Amino acid sequence: MTTLAIISGTGALPATLGGTEALYVTFSGVPADIPAGADRIEARFEQLGAMFDALRVAGIKEVVLAGAMSRPSFDPAALDAFTAAAMPRLMAAMGGGDDGLLQVVMEMFTDQGFVLKGAHELRPDLVLGVAVEIGAPDNQARADIARGQEILAALSALDLGQGCVVAGGLCLGIETLQGTDFLLDTVARSAPHLKRAPGVFVKLPKEGQDLRADMPTIGPDTIAAVARAGLGGVAIKAGAVLVLERGLVERALAEHGLFLVTL
Amino acid sequence: MTTLAIISGTGALPATLGGTEALYVTFSGVPADIPAGADRIEARFEQLGAMFDALRVAGIKEVVLAGAMSRPSFDPAALDAFTAAAMPRLMAAMGGGDDGLLQVVMEMFTDQGFVLKGAHELRPDLVLGVAVEIGAPDNQARADIARGQEILAALSALDLGQGCVVAGGLCLGIETLQGTDFLLDTVARSAPHLKRAPGVFVKLPKEGQDLRADMPTIGPDTIAAVARAGLGGVAIKAGAVLVLERGLVERALAEHGLFLVTL
Q1: Of A2, A46, A254, B201, which one has the greatest count of Cβ atoms within 10 A?
Q2: Is the pLDDT of residue B261 over 90?
Q3: ipTM for this model
């Protein structure tokens, strides 16, 4: 019997981590991608007390957050006692940066006695090591990567920015709440004359970010979006960015003639 | 006879500063909005030496940069001696931040003996003083403004970011090379559920920015774009952001029920 529960959102990550073995937790009204036939608890954000009880009954010891989850809307009339008591803390957290709310949710799991795991701990093969180079960035691309790192470091102190696009020394986009796909789509819509070099997409966790929450992730769709944006390649942090469906990622890189390097 | 030359790009600013009195300088292949019938020199980026000579012949003493100008493409075969000699410096500057190139161009004007003026020096009535409040931001909007200031301060050290959008404590966009209109359009295209408050557009010069170059500017079109993005209002730096067509700006604010405050 599994002792792992996967708190599931959309994307390939929940199924990648759990296969058909784990217990999946989805939330009512929040899209999630989980394997057909897998064990599943459908929880409600208003009834976190009931969710914790159900996890205990199922014998769950470890929990991992996986996939993209839209921010919940609460129905105050449906709150259970546990969640009602936690509301002031949740509401305060929602006013902060992206990480604030997730941090509180994670603290709740650990307060309730569950061990929180990061996806990279359960599946170390999903991250890339140092000094990986697929394809070959030229000197301009290397300079653009350095500029991107500098920008993300400055924003990191503000709990903001997991990604940015730099081309020919100039910043063409910074990832905000809308996420990576939106950023790359925005760059794709930019006037082509603004780009004096193909440019790079740089994706890093925030400095000090707890990788058990909202770990930066790329996959074949990311590479396709990078190609649509006309960029030359991608730079990610070694050991700290999940690469889903790596075979398809490598195929997409080759197909579009893009590089991928780790930092 | 005028002693003022307006180095002109697009928008209302060139005509606002010069009327039909000044000498307008436009660049071949670069769109510019100047009054019909005004005196004009059509220059080429490849032939800056010829431009400086023409300005001297016309008796010009003061120069102001006005309006949005797209980045030039150089035709190396057309370079005059002056510009050829300046190319290494120009090329190096183009690899830096947005301000790098402008700074070099401005230094060229002063090196050639011209006095560079800021639009706000020629027309102090185009900026707003401290503590201006049109409409009334609520407490959430004030918190969003503070967050926006914090984000722009962090980016300012990197020569990046004159504007950002914050809603309910969360950043929905940071102005990059594409400019203000593109930023606001991008926010307008974002998923509405990401906004837990109307949000604000914060527009400031970079810290230490030379206001004679690329001074932040808003106008009636900016207010309309803020309204399309569904935001609650605008915050600008007192004394350091040009407000063009102020009557129309105030009318647009009233029409859309938006606030404008100075910081």
Answers
A1: B201
A2: yes
A3: 0.83
